[in-house]
Amino acid sequence: MPSISEPKTATPSAKTFTAPAAGQPVVPSAPSEPEDIAFDIRDFSLWYGTNQALHGISIRIPARRVTAIIGPSGCGKSTFLRALNRMHELTPGTRLNGSLRLFGEDLYGSHVEPTVVRRRVGMVFQKSNPFPTLSIKENVLVGLRLNGVSDRSVLQRRLEESLRLAALWDEVKDVLDRPGVSLSGGQQQRLCIARALAVQPEVLLMDEPCSALDPLATAKIEELIQTLRENFTVVIVTHNMQQAARASDRTAFFYMGNLVEYDNTSKMFTNPGNPQTEAYVSGRFG
Amino acid sequence: MPDAVALSSPFAPSPARERWRRAKSAGMTVVLCLCAVAVMAPLFLVVYFLVRQGASSLDWNFFTQLPKPAGESGGGMANAIVGTITLLAMAATVGVPIGVLGGIYLAEYGSEGANVWIRFAADVLNGVPSIIWGMVVYLLLVVPFKTFSAYAGGVALGLMMIPLVMRTTEEVLVLVPQSYREAALALGIARWKVIVIIVLRTALKGVVTGVLVALARVAGETAPLLFTALGNNFWNRSLSEPISALPLQIFAYAISPYDDWHRQAWAGALVLMAMILGLNILVRLLSNWRNNQ
């Protein structure tokens, strides 16, 4: 068996790995320390109608690490992220193949409810989207409340914990009843992170969470991501190469629906094994 | 010669052309103003005549007393005012749940193929002459139970509300950004809860506005009530008996030969108009409030 941190080319299902115009094999790197595997994904393909968006992706995403997914627009990285908590099922006419396991459990098993998957795998979106009719407090607690939690002491505890985790507590603790949309853009995004954390997911998916934020707000979110990795598995899609380099432990490079290369972030950005990766991270295309 | 070239250009300013252009502009402005006046004038004329003819007959008795028999002066339309409110409440009971749920289906669940037909059906129903609604409900509820009733009137008005409420609900639900649905679904919230608690709540003012518009629209309907609620000169004691309504009472009084009843009909029309205007103003306030958020 390949070691857990090895990139996908070492897995048995690597036969579909067809990086376009890629000549060199990906060089696996030695793991720095033992890791748990959060997502174990093998030969995962996805179609929108007849259009294949993902081609046989095999990847192991470590637990309690930050994994960045980079690649040019339309390369399938958002599709891949949304497949991790079955959000892509909202798009009619999708079809998939292959296996996707979270801590050993098949997320696409016939008995698995998408709502249960989404409670375990939370998501933060590109544009902050606090519910406009709810206050800051209600926004954080809505996931718990609508999933049947009504114990006031539990709700109060989760409210403070989640807002502290999202580094927002000190800024909003006196205005919890104000509308969520009254906050600034960066605060709104951290509110959305708190909302996702309140249901205590195991994994947090982030789809370009900083692309609508200014550099200061971005820095705060990146700092926050660093603290989250102590307790959560974070998978972040980003267009910002510096962000991937700064904030992630692992980086996966997607191109045209294929996983081209997946390795430790430091290696991906200093000595990538694939010429396409090198071209992309150095800004020569994409 | 550059000057000559410039003057021969079709866009060159020339005093005659400039005057003609200004005249056309002024002429069109006048035409548009007249059109605007033509749109406004009927409303003002209606209000003017209603106030002139009806205001003098409006007094406390009008709102508190039953109609008096022909020949006796005085009396009022208290039963018709209460009847109209009763019928509108029953219409809302029938029309709002079905209309709102239908709108939710169109906006959240229906496939594009099915939606085309449902929208088409709703639009056709919207255009069905109101007297036909009366005839249909007459056959469905009046003939089998052998009596005209408030129920039949309420159902007739409620059926008319359904397509209106359904289409406005659909429209405002579609306006709720997809990102709110995604955010809620990503929290592992069941889809029906997402729709009821997140989507519907976000669009609530729009839905309420649609319901009020539909109520205002059916409040003045007379034809569907002729075959169903029938009208009643006394207080309605049971909803399974005929009930009075302002439009019915106005109709009955307006075609009567008595001057006194004519005056009462004008007063009734003024009250009905004021009620509908009130609903419309409420709609306006709600929409402004919504837009200001």
Describe the structure in your own words.
The complex is a heterodimer of chains A (286) and B (293). Chain A contains ten helices and ten strands. Chain A has 286 residues and is of the alpha/beta class. Chain A has a single domain (8-17, 33-281), classed as P-loop containing nucleotide triphosphate hydrolases (Rossmann fold), CATH 3.40.50.300. In chain A, the strands form two sheets. Chain A has a six-stranded mixed sheet, sandwiched between helices. Chain A has a four-stranded antiparallel sheet with strand order 2-1-4-5, with helices on one face. Mean pLDDT of chain A is 87; it is low at 1-31. Chain B is mainly α. Chain B has two domains: 2-57; 60-292, MetI-like fold, CATH 1.10.3720. Chain B has helices at 2-8, 15-54, 60-64, 78-109, 112-127, 130-145, 150-175, 178-186, 191-202, 204-219, 223-226, 246-254, 259-292. Chain B is flat. The mean pLDDT of chain B is 91. At the A-B interface, helix 2, helix 3 and helix 6 of A face helix 8 and helix 9 of B.
| SSE class of chain A | alpha/beta
Which shape of chain A, going by the Cα principal axes? globular
Distance between the termini of chain B: 62 Å
* The named CATH superfamily of chain A: P-loop containing nucleotide triphosphate hydrolases
Q: Quickly count the domains of chain A.
A: 1
Q: Report the average pLDDT across residues of chain A.
A: 87
Query: H/E element string of chain B?
Result: HHHHHHHHHHHHH
Percentage of β-strand residues of chain A? 15-25%
Q: What's the gyration radius of chain A in Å? A: 19 Å
Q: Would you identify the regions of chain A where 5 or more consecutive residues have pLDDT less than 50?
A: 1-31
